[in-house]
Amino acid sequence: MDFxxxxxxxxxxxxxxxRAALRSNDDEVGESESGELQDRAxxxxxxxxLDADESLAEFRELIRSAGGEIAAELMQRRSRPDPxxxxxxxxxxxxxxxxxxxxxxxxxxxxDLSPTQLRNLEAALPCRVLDRTQLILDIFARHAxxxxxxxxxxLAQLEYMLPRLTGRGKAMSQLGxxxxxxxPGETQLETDRRKIQRRIDQVKLDxxxxxxxxxxxxxxxxxxxxxxxxxxxxxxxxxxxxxNQLTGAHVLQSARMFATLDPKLRAIELPSKRRILLSDTVGxxxxxxxxxxxxFRATLEEVExxxxxxxxxxxxxxxxxxxxxxxxxxxDELEALGKPRIEVLNKIDLLDADEREGLAAREQPRDQRxxxxxxxxQTGEGMDALLAAIDRALFSDPVIETELRVPQSDGAAxxxxxxxxxxxxxxxxxxxxxxxxxxxxxxxxxxxxxxxHDDNPSDDTQHGTDTQVARG
Length: 472
Fold this sequence. Notes:
This protein is an alpha/beta fold. Helix content is 40%, strand content 19%. Residues 1-48, 168-172 and 454-472 have low confidence and may be disordered.
């Protein structure tokens, strides 16, 4: 069995278990120090393509996002996890010594712990123990601002906590009084479990109410032909910055993971004058806890209902393909993997000239439903190309090119054409305005009485066919 401990300044590059003790400077919690243990005892297949350094760097960023300060790091490599403590009795003693010498009050594992492992580790170590899922839940709880987000985080925390409750058996029992009620009675553990289960049921009811409201809002939106486009991607890929760049909104932008949690929805106009609703959703991450995916169903319904997905990727990341695989894993769980998708390679401003040329020269994906666009959400570079790609990929309310003859006296029709269509040419024949336009089929249909009689209807069919071919 090979165990490797390392100081904070070194990089081992080993694939296997990793742990770290950390010191926290979180003023809100009122703690001066905390500890973290990070462990990678799972097989490498659980995290394809990520080596130990990259995975550990990601875990460090999660810790900083939670307000933690790293005091020490330890790494372990072993053939199989220990069922009692995950890391073995000898390593537990080593961690206890490190935690005591650094005055750490929190130990974090980059690994999910079973209820038994968590209980045994807390009994053996001089401070609290948290695993990866608990850390992510804590970050989510910190950043949830809306009532909906807070309910979803609470549900995930309660469902995670329920099987991990511990009690002291008869020492915590409630004695009954009267004939037939004497004895150990119901333990405090059972009482706590029942209270948590009741709270879970209540939170689920509250979330069902949120779903009903969202469903009603979506039905009102669907009454008008305004498609939804959803931003998805790995956390810290730049989704919020891109959302602000496209919509002019001012949602929070931060390099910290999961800095934005609650969903946002804004309307934008495409080059064809069609309008869409752009939705920003929570970022994904490696081994995203299943309880979070389940709890955030109400938020992620925007992904399920979207016509197109904008998969925002960090073009400067050295493990972008692995991040892409993790996002696709969650999309598959949401049954949204087959949707038309635009791969938005963001942060090209961080690349040098050769790297940009390499990305630009790369062949487009064979699947025509997946198109790559290079952008920089920070500088605004590539936004026109991205909007044009969205325009081409939309299949609802297709763009029609036709010719109209509109009386100058019909100001409402002329105003609708000016605001909702692209005018290619304009000519005046007495009191008639002759226009060659392209615009949404829904708007052109409302102005059908002004279309020329010799207009070839096959043009509309051909254009609709071209639109479908463009999106695959």
